[in-house]
Specification:
Blueprint lengths: L12 H11 L4 H14 L6 H14 L2
Helix pairs in contact: 1-2
Length: about 60
């Protein structure tokens, strides 16, 4: 049996708009679900590339 949970996150309106545009989804929950599914399937998520991109994102957000 699959257990379903409700998860939340905080995003800026700009980031959410970018996610919706990039995912091709108009609904927030669908855009987030698509992003999570992509993240779990993407072969690059286990590499150092992801860590570097996250560090860059955090550095840009902090400005």
């Amino acid at each position: 049996m699959v257990k379903i949970i409700h998860a939340q996150t905080v995003l800026t309106e700009e980031v959410l708009a970018q996610l919706k545009e990039k995912s091709g989804e108009s609904a927030t929950k669908d855009a987030l679900a698509k992003a999570v599914e992509h993240y779990l399937q993407c072969p690059y998520t286990d590499s150092d590339m992801l860590e570097k991109r996250l560090e860059e994102y955090i550095r840009k957000r902090g400005k």
